[in-house]
Amino acid sequence: MSQHIVVIGGVALGPKAACRFKRLEPGSTVTMIDQSSMISYGGCGIPYYVSGDVSDAVQLCQTSFHMTRDPQFFKDVKGVDVQVLTRATRIDRDNKRVEVENVETGEKASIDYDKLVIATGAAPRKLGLPGEDLEGVNYVANPGDATCIRESISKGQVGKAVIIGAGFIGLEMAEAYADMWGVETSVVEIMDQIMPRLVSPALATMGQKHMEENGVNFYFGETVERIEGKDGRVTRVVTSKRTLDADAVIISAGVVPNSDIAKEAGLYVHERGGVYVDEFMRTNDPDIYAGGDCCIVKNLVTGADAFLPLGSMANRQGRVIGTNLAGGNARFDGVVGSFVVKLFETSMAGTGLSLESAKQSGFDAMSVLLIQQDRAHFYPTKELMTLEMVVNKANRRVLGVQGFGSSGDAMVGRINAVAAILKSGPTIDDISNMELAYSPPFAAAMDILNTLANLADNALLGINRGVGPDGFKELWDKRDQDACFFLDCRENADAVPYMERNPEFWHNVPQGEIYNRLDEIPTDKPIVLVCNTGARSYEAQIMLTEKGYKDVTNIHGGMASIKKYGVDL
């Protein structure tokens, strides 16, 4: 028997659910409504249109075969009726109808449904700042925003830009302004690092340093108090610590689920917004489904509620909903939380929990950091990759992996490999023996993921006792107190420049000569071992421990991580 499916929302999940259902039940009717005139666009591509990587904003609204996804396209190609500029104002669950209003004329109507899909998405978080309505202050929510931002740059109106927020969109927009257009760009972040809670301070600092090298300024631990302007246009941003001149301001402080209409209809909604759904994407009303940026799902690592506003998730959920509308039994079990963000020639990616979020979730967790070549060390296009693994100490369960490396596919490929198995609760041993495709142009014979797990294993066993570059900086900053003996385990030629700059503190005994030169290494001081990446210094640590040295620390990631972290030696 044919059905009438009504979909509220026409950006990501809504169209996917509607089209999947129509393929399964072509004889049924689907009505999709959206309060905007623009539908089915790739919002995640907006920063790349602003940067110029995407040449035309219309590409964000096109299929891969260059057809524009407008109402006529959905009618002719997909068999879906679309009503744009139509706002859903109320869901009448008793009578199974949606009350709507034309946003231009105010005309009211109602649409009956057999089943309903709530795909209302999320809205940029408003900060309520004085001056938010000034010309030149923008959010990044739709192609209209993108066109406005890029036109102002193209007209030469923007010499200085201020980004509020150092999350995904904030960092992508900072790159867009600084890289393509040469705009003097500053980022203000209330927390003390980029991508707070998603990556460790060490990885965050590496990403920050790279962006600073490309002309982006950061101001952490500051709140924006107001935005000021002249003649209706923004001129500066006033924070709790300084005033920044600005011709353009991007507010990127996260998003808030659009779930008020669901709450008013009596559906279960999180206290901070977001519609609760089960694994079949059903709400507490069996005839109403929800998904995408307006819903709350399960975190498969912690078991807690999760809000993950990503277009990739919305599309996958949309297919599940479309299948189940047609009587299927498709499941969306939840998320592990995977991401990647491009930072000029590098990228930051991760899956699962960072160390901070793991501890906040109640795990007795630890992390290890590794720097290794992303392919065979002898292959000419090799690059260093930095990965950090978070592990639950009690059962060796891997809780997450984050990384910083090139903007190519190598690093995100490793992250995706872990993401695929993370919901199954893999242990260190599973990653240590993970089978990965190998050839010198693509990977090392002992892949960096395998080595990372081995490092975690050695750390838990207590045979590789070390800290990352942030820990090294703390030790180095105390060097004048004669607290530690810094021992460079590399060959003399590598160590000499640092010995010349720091003759009192930097010492050198190559790892292969340690047993013959023990008289040069004190037994009454903590020893800090350094090599290029932490591998030779690990061997040196074993050797010194075997000879009775009690306090020996290996610097994980070695000089490579110290340099990326920006420690001044």
UniProtKB/TrEMBL annotation:
Keywords attached to this entry: FAD, Flavoprotein, Oxidoreductase, Redox-active center
Superkingdom, natural source: Bacteria
Listed Pfam families: Pyr_redox_2, Pyr_redox_dim, Rhodanese
Cofactor(s) recorded in Swiss-Prot or TrEMBL: FAD
Sequence ranges assigned to domain Rhodanese in this UniProt record: 507-567
Protein family per UniProt: Belongs to the class-III pyridine nucleotide-disulfide oxidoreductase family.
PANTHER family (UniProt xref): NAD(P)H SULFUR OXIDOREDUCTASE (COA-DEPENDENT), PYRIDINE NUCLEOTIDE-DISULFIDE OXIDOREDUCTASE DOMAIN-CONTAINING
Protein name per its UniProtKB record: Pyridine nucleotide-disulfide oxidoreductase
